[in-house]
Write a structure and sequence with these properties.
The chain is of the alpha/beta class. The chain contains ten helices and ten strands. The chain has helices spanning 74-77, 81-84, 90-101, 111-124, 137-144, 153-160, 170-190, 264-273, 299-307, 314-320; strands at residues 26-34, 43-52, 57-64, 105-108, 133-136, 197-199, 253-257, 277-279, 288-291, 311-312. The chain has a six-stranded mixed β-sheet, with helices on both faces. A four-stranded parallel β-sheet has the order 8-7-9-10, sandwiched between helices. Helix 5 (137-144) runs parallel beside helix 7 (170-190). The longest helix has 21 residues, at 170-190.
């Protein structure tokens, strides 16, 4: 039986005084195991560790979830169709899970994945997760400048001396993350660092195509949320580079790189509807690159630096979207 207690907790310095006034009042450390990584994949298990404002554990919770489809990579999460057959559906546990997330910052390792899986499950259940902000422990590790060989959870655990008992088990992964998050949070507070918080935008629409009833061992696919489609060509000419401090202008070529708090397709739709040209790559013609991680070394950011393309974050971009100037000579 998995020991779900806070075992072998690492030693760390006491919390600084005074505590940063702008830090959140509570956290929900989350891990989900899934049938895969695509938009139409489903959650098969979920765990939540509730932490107080200074990262101390208050409670923990774990559940299996019947995904109503093939369980996917059983060799990773170990959950077979037989094990999941009598598990509750996501809609059955959505309320209890929401109660454990409500009013807290969602914390996860590669948080965009866990958040989007939860957001899609809630959208399928015709509800919304009560999460307004998330914090990725990978981003926090970067802010702290931790000397890690890579950004895997096992490396973060080793850094703080946390022993992982069962990798890819949602409860144990959440425990490990909770034990590594507290010393990271205390170090951030002691250093006066701004936490890398991102807004969470619940999904407003979802469409499923009904399929005939099929067994777990057969292939099952859904249409997924907002199926991919070819975007219409931008009707406006490119007016050139975005001038920092100025307005966006219809026809500007905008590219996106990395994690966004608003689902990427929604953000791209908003840009298209405002009259901007959403580009899939960066070139000398790109007017603006939007990213929440300007210090990363993605290919788009590398090109943007070489072309001196202006770079802004998502929050600034969404503000600019509210007042896009019309194309010249309209």
């Amino acid at each position: 039986m998995l020991d779900d207690r806070m075992a072998a907790a690492p030693r760390f310095a006491p919390p600084p005084s005074p505590w940063p006034a702008d830090y959140p009042e509570g956290y929900a450390v989350v891990d989900v195991e899934t049938t895969g990584l695509a938009r139409d994949d489903r959650i098969v298990s979920a765990a939540v560790y509730q932490l107080d404002a200074r990262g101390a554990v208050q409670d923990h919770w774990y559940t299996l979830v019947n995904p109503q489809r093939d369980p996917g990579p059983v060799w990773i999460h170990g959950l077979t169709a037989d094990v999941l057959a009598d598990a509750p559906l996501f809609a059955d546990i959505a309320g209890e899970l929401a109660g454990r997330l409500d009013g807290r910052v969602l914390v996860a390792h590669n948080a965009v994945f866990d958040w989007q899986m939860l957001a899609r499950e809630y959208a399928r259940a015709k509800s919304a997760a009560p999460v307004r902000q998330r914090l990725c422990t990978i981003a926090l590790s970067k802010e702290l400048g931790l000397a890690l060989p890579n950004h895997k959870l096992e490396s973060l655990a080793a850094h703080y001396g946390v022993v992982q008992q069962r990798a890819h088990h949602a409860l144990d992964d959440a425990r490990v993350l909770a034990e590594t998050f507290q010393p990271s949070l205390l170090a951030a507070a002691a250093g006066g660092l701004r936490l890398p918080l991102l807004a969470c935008q619940p999904l407003a629409e979802w469409s499923d195509t009904p399929r005939a009833a099929i067994g777990y061992q057969r292939s099952y696919r859904q249409t997924g949320w907002r199926p991919s489609r070819k975007r219409p060509a931008c009707p406006y000419p490119n007016p050139g580079r975005y001038e920092p401090g100025g307005q966006l202008v219809q026809g500007m070529r905008v590219a996106f790189s990395g994690d966004t708090s608003i689902d990427r397709e929604l953000l791209e739709d908003q840009a298209t509807e405002a009259g901007l040209h959403v580009a899939t790559s960066v070139s000398r013609l790109t007017s603006l690159l939007v990213t929440n991680d300007p210090e990363s070394f993605t290919s788009k950011l590398t090109k943007a630096r070489s072309f001196s393309t202006p770079v802004i974050d998502e929050a600034a971009f969404t503000q600019l979207l509210r007042d896009v100037a019309p194309a010249p000579n309209r």
